[in-house]
Amino acid sequence: MTALSSPYAHNNQSVRKVMLQVQLAALPALLAHIYLFGYGIVIQWMLAVTTAIVVEYVMLTLRGRPVLPFMTDMSALITVTGLVFCIPPEAPWWIVVSGSAFALIFGKHLYGGLGYNPFNPAMLGYAFLLISFPVPMTQWTMPGEVVGYTLDFMHSAQVIFMGHFDGNSLDMITGATPLNELRTGLSQGVMVPDTLRAHDSQLPWGLNSWAWINIAFILGGLYMILNGTISWQYPLGFLGALSAMALLFHAIDPAVYPPLSFVLLSGGTMLAAFFIITDPVTASTTPRGKLIYAAGIGVLVYVIRSWGAFPDGIAFAILLMNIAVPLIDQYTQPRVFGHSR
Amino acid sequence: MGLLQRLATLLPLANHWLHRFHGGVSPQYNKSLSASQPLRTTLMPSQLVLPLQQPVGLPAEPIVQVGERVKKNQLLAQAGKDPRKALIVPIHAPTSGTIEAIMPMTLPHPSGLEDLCIVLKPDGLDEAIDNALQVDGSAPQTPQALKDILLQAGIIGMGGAGFPTYAKIPSEAGKIHTLLVNGAECEPFITCDDLLMQTHADEIVRGALITAHALGAKRILCGIETNKPAAINAMRHAAKQLQHDNLKVEIKEVATVYPMGAQKQLTFELTGVEMPSKAHAVDLGMLMMNVATYAAIYRAVTLGEPLTSRIVTVSGLGLEKPFNMPVMIGTPFVELAEAAKPKVALDYPLVMGGPMMGFQVQNNQVPVLKTTNCILANPPEPAEMQMPCIRCGACMDACPVNLLPQQMYWHAQAHEFDKVEKLNVFDCIECGCCSYVCPSHIPLVQYYRHAKSEIKTIKAEQQATELAKQRHEFKLARIEREKEEREARLKAKKEAVKQEVAAASSAATDAAKPAKSAAAAAAAARAAAARKAKSAATQAESPAIPPARLKAIEAAKAASARAAKQTAEKSPEKTQQAGAEDTTLDAKAAARKAAQLAAQKRAQAKVSGNIEISDNKESANTPDSKPDPKAAAKAAAMKAAAQRREKTQQAGSSQTAEASTSPKTEAIDLTGSSEATPASEKEAARKAAMAAAREAAKARAAAKKQPVSEALSAAEPGASSSEVAPDPAEAARLKREKAMQAAKARAAQKRQAADNSNAASDASSQESSS
What we know:
Largest interface: A-B, 43 and 64 residues
Oligomer: heterodimer
Largest sheet of chain B: 5 strands, mixed
Number of strands of chain A: 4
Largest sheet of chain A: 2 strands, antiparallel
Shape of chain B: elongated
Structural class of chain A: mainly alpha
Radius of gyration of chain B: 41 Å
Number of helices of chain B: 25
Strand order of the largest sheet of chain A: 1-4
Strand content of chain A: under 5%
């Protein structure tokens, strides 16, 4: 059956294709992650996808919705992919399972499913994990450049499912992320430049592993901008505001506030800029609204990182700006052709 | 532009930098399917179906009989009424043949509408009437001359909307400074304008020059999309050949983007003028017409040919040999589609127009219209399931009007049509870009069409409700007024009765004691005023009037008895004073009542005035000579009061009373006459009769009183009260006027004076407070 009224043509775009584009764009970061941190993320990802399939099936059945079309829209895949990048690669298996389930059930299905959720499901799941299980969430696997080796697939699986491998405990291979170290250092009176100098990297251009993950995200993000999957306003607004904050405060006090390069290439900055805040369902949709929304997140991320209780603030910054979306949309409506403002 | 174009082929994003207007899409054009084929020779169909109803306007009236033989270009139907009003377009025979029937047939319309059509059976001879419009071939010098030819030729906008061209052209020369030629043809598949420009460029250019010359236009701009290089070349060539020293057609290449051919978008592209939302291009001194329309204008003006054929694209993925062909208006779709060798049987609906804005016909037998640019045969494809909106904003990026399709959809889905309207849904040109790009496959345009029709329905309903409300209010006001009139009649009767009672009582008592009768009358009047006030307060209790009247009469009798007792006890002088005071009070009460009534009247007049403004004005200008019953009643009351005073005083006070009565009577007359509506007119006769009856009654009462007053005047009881009486009367009059003014102001404030009793009580409270 065809459309009842014009247009009878379509550009053959579909929700599934959009989601798969995003998944494809996340591939460079995934590969970089595997290279730098080992296979932990693959196991986490598979766990998350399995959870997503089960949760989607159960929730769609319970809600009485057609299961197959909605399961194959691939939106759940993007949600859990976003979440997996936020979880330590060797975190216990129940972290990612509970986080994914929470994200999909409470972040999406309880609001009416795809398109009706006010909050970014991935970030809701991430915030849930950060608040509920703070300790495992801050124990990051150390990259190969630091400990000298990365775990292979089987060892990773052992750690994730049993908490140890070959009798070695998890603590031996995990540590704090640079963002965390900075925060801990400052609380102990170690100034930012000293903390950064103590962790000089052997990788090209002196960039550490987390910075390289961020660069991989930039690659994927640029791909998505060029093929029109995401709007350029989101990364521009977000990175612009974050950079402005970083430059301003670094200029005021370089001893306390890290330089711009560190701010942009640490934590989940680029993941948020290209993959998380670009989730259209929960973001502002007007052209100016997108900029304002993204800039708001940028400011909030810097505020939470610098003065908040968490090392990285993307989850809370995004959730906070999600609340403001209806208001932003209301006041940023574009001028209609033939109308004066 | 060249660099940008190359960039755009690499980067879809760069497409937006090639044109001025926002959004737009680049669909799969598929134009080469038909454009690559040469123009085919006209097909002689088995029958021609000519609808009397054109896309715009009212149907024409046939002037031929069934069975009549007609020649090509012969007039078949024309406007019976003034065509300029109803946008009627005449219809001519596209070929020679016999009129087979005049009957309802399915039209190419989204709804599958059926309407009266002339069915012509071609005889294949194609005998034509040359110069059917009887033109001399010279270019019209005035817009009106051009318009006359265009009307006779039956030319309508051939780009899509089909608005009669003669109605589109302004009558005054010089109003149009820029003539725009739309050769964009942005819809996929359609190439009829492309082929027309390639093969008949000179006709288009000549048509444009003729139009510009007649209208006094200074500039002619023609926009052609870059994907039609052959057409651009042909048009450039023709424009160069035919250019006058002061007038030439400027051919402008415009970017290939859908919807470049939309009027406002192409106007913006060519002139940089963004047409205001509700404005027409003509108001801005610009006139845009399709290339085919200009060619038809040329043929009508110089060859005297009416519009009976047009080039039609027959294309689609379901056809093996798509083509363009000059087609007779009225040719059935299916015959043309069959001529293009369909790949599979045409058991699916054909589309009239392009895939973006066309519509599926309900029946493939429908005829080609003057607006049919394309017949599209695309076999049905399995439609993608509609997913929820993910707010991706692709629709917003594609919208050429810069609307927020996604938010309009959201509200349309929730039936919040006021919000949809606020998001300017009526600026939507239904180009289909939003639906085209929607990854969730939401039929957005369908939602907007629905929302538009819903909003229109809601507005019509609101209007009807408002009208019904006004009617209802008017009816209530009329009922109220009738009741008041009834009461006034009753009151007049009662007054008469009272006068009789007073006369009787005064006759019974000593004629030398007139003060007593005056007091009695005053008491009666007071009682009447009290009762009146009561009845005014409880207007709805009309059945309670008879008992009230009885009560009042009793009260009046008691009062007269009391007064008689008083006069017996006290000195006549004192009694007279009291009587005078009573009169004053009575006058006040009467004044208040009058003001109240006047306020009510005005309020009613307001209500009725809302409905019948013109009537109101007319009747207000020529005050009704008929005395309003209430006014009469009032006059009677005043007269009675005056007579009462007369009894005790001399004629001077009565004159004052008379003088004070007259302005009020006039005012009431005015308001009374202002409600002279058809509804009340039928009462006029009754009123007149009533007035006559009342006059008779009054006369009777006066006759009865006559001896009394004579006796009074003979007695001449005392001059003191004669000085007292006029003053209160004067004060009462001033007060009344003040109250009336206040009431007027209030009534003016309350445009919708819905509650008459409210207004009345307001008036009385204002009165008492002042």
